[in-house]
Amino acid sequence: MIAMDNLILGFNILLTPANLFACFIGVFIGTLIGVLPGIGPVGTMAILLPITFSMGPTTAIILLSGIYYGAQYGGSTTSILVNIPGEIGSIVTCLDGYQMARQGRAGPALGMCAIGSFIGGTVSIFGLIFLTPSLAKLAIGFGPPELFSLILLGLMMVTSLGTGSVLKSMLMALLGMFISTIGKESIMGYGRFTLGSITLADGLGLAPVAVGMFGLGELLTNIEELKKQEVFKTTIKNLLPTLKDWLACRWTFIRSTLLGFFLGIFPGGGVTVSTFFAYGLERRCSKHPEKFGTGVIEGVCAPETANNAATSGSMVPLLALGVPPNGVMAMLLGALIVHGIQPGPFFINEHPDLFWGIIASLFIGNIMLLVLNLPLIGLWLQLLRVPHRLLFPLIITFCFIGVYSLNNNIFELFIMIVFGFLGYLTQKIKYPPGPFLLGLVLGPMLEVSLRQSMTISQGDPAIFIQRPLSAGLLILMILIIIWVSTQAVRKQGSTKKSIKLKT
Amino acid sequence: MKSRETMIAAFWILLGSVIAIWSSTFPFGTGKRLGPAVFPFTVGLMVILLGAILCLQAIFKKERHPEKNLESLLPEGAALMRVSLTLFAMLAAAAIFDVVGFLLTIFCLMLFLFRVIEPQQWKVDLFYVLIFTLGSYILFQVVLKVQLPTGFLGL
């Protein structure tokens, strides 16, 4: 009943013109960038972050989070019609979605994606409502040692369990941590790596670095490649799936929602991993697993339901503990901090309007997305045909305006461009940028919690082991390191065996 | 490919060393009150360690397909021109942004990018550039009231 009262509070906060408009703009832009391959939600959130400074924190976060889950809806359109994932969470949708389009069933595929996304996105909100306050209560006993161990665990999980090389992910996270140390540190006000510059004394700033690394970095890669998109020529008809499709997917909705939500909670999990797991689970549960990949409706429903469920799941650790489980949530954390709000165990009590406003916006946002993605599918199809040569200069302009508007400082434009080049290079040499953002945002929290812990313990590092929660988190981290190392050695061993067999 | 990986690893070791050495010039504090040097110094050491592991991996990794012509790090030909000119345009625009002002800088930047990325007929490109520049001005300066430089033209 308390949750119901709070939900009503949330809807009261949401149902103001400014917040409703922000929700609509967020989900609209999210769908747009999901449809258009080339720029992802993190880059877009980074570009729009400076513009949100003139808004209140609730409005800003509603807009930015709308971009995230909106992008999951939009990504399926390109996957189905162009066989290119519009979003990283729609990679798996290509497997069966494009085949369905080739069979003249693009309409039901698109329709089922939208419906699955709606179900996954909406049902998982209830998980967010019930799990976040419970987890926050548990975390109230957290002190600096527990926070330190938790952040370390989160960073380790993201770098070890995410996609790509573990070593490269760790190096990017460390690079992010180093960048976060530039400027005056928060405890003694000592200037580090400033080269005597007053501008650098304020640090490099999250917005110029993030806009550069994610926005410009992706853009430069796209400008280099300049891929032409061939939109599959088909008439989109019968957007609503058939009764047979509904029956085929009735258990898929439930399984994928649960799997996506819980995988989204864990660092390193998130949208991408949830889609692969959901697809694999559906194939295992299917009576005809051999048909997956040839155009089965479950192969489209499962990943799209899971990726939207994962977006709500990934908000749980952010809002309850203040620890983002992935790069997108790190951006949202950065946005909250910039607006003067520190998420964590006390977040719900101190900012109930913000928390319940976000929850309410998730409900309304998912309804808006269902409307945007079903009847307005024609609009997105037209947008897919917009040449990239028109979009790229426009996005660069937005980056300029966004970053300059922060402090009217052209030095920040140069920071943005330098990190844009760095982001481009890291993509070329296959270094993942997500851990960099996590390191950038979590680095200061990690340092402060470490120094506070040592002060509390009078210089005794055993405090991290003496406190049970902290010790438990560190043991979990060690177990993950052992597991990842074992997997790596096994993989190397089996690779050597297969090479020997071939020769 | 192997030499590229080794060079990248060497870069990380160098970066880690710079971070660690520079950090050591800050106060380390005491065990009870850790100073500002401790965190970045530790980060630097970890970067050196991981860079060294990366270097060893690159040296001892067997090339499975050494005969394959692997793509170079930098793009070539037209792609290289596009990326280089885009970067140059952005740097130039940033340098003149305050002096020349928003309207003229964005107009020139967009026109340059249109001509660099995928040039069409001049009048087509000019048309789009004008629309986008004016549209951006109206959206940001007029509607959102973002503070943008007016430059010597006062626009």
What does this protein look like?
In chain A, a hairpin with a 6-residue loop joins β1 and β2. Helices cover 75% and strands 1% of the residues of chain A. The longest helix of chain A has 35 residues. Chain A has 503 residues and is mainly alpha-helical. Chain A has one domain. The model of chain A has no long low-confidence stretch (mean pLDDT 85). Chain A contains 22 helices and two strands. In chain A, strands 1-2 form a two-stranded antiparallel sheet. Chain B has 155 residues and is mostly helical. Chain B folds into two domains: 59 residues; 67 residues, no CATH class. Chain B is 69% helix and 0% strand. Chain B contains five helices and no strands. The termini of chain B are far apart. The relative contact order of chain B is 0.10. The model of chain B has no long low-confidence stretch (mean pLDDT 86). Classes of the chains: A mainly alpha (503), B mainly alpha (155). At the A-B interface, α8, α10, α18, α19 and α20 of A face α1, α2, α3, α4 and α5 of B.
- Biggest sheet architecture of chain A: 2 strands, antiparallel
Structural class of chain B: mainly alpha
Order of helices and strands of chain B: HHHHH
Q: Structural class from helices and strands of chain A? A: mainly alpha
Report strand order across the widest sheet of chain A: 1-2
Extended strand count of chain A: 2
What shape does the CA trace of chain B take?
flat
User: Nearest-angstrom radius of gyration of chain A?
Assistant: 22 Å
Interface with most residues: A-B, 57 and 63 residues
Helix proportion range of chain B: 55-70%
Number of strands of chain B: 0
The helix content of chain A is: over 70%
β-strand percent of chain B reads under 5%
Order of helices and strands of chain A: HHHHHHHHEEHHHHHHHHHHHHHH
What's the overall average pLDDT of chain B, rounded? 86
In percent terms, what proportion of residues of chain A is strand?
under 5%
Could you say how many structural domains of chain A there are in total? Answer: 1
Overall tally of structural domains of chain B:
2
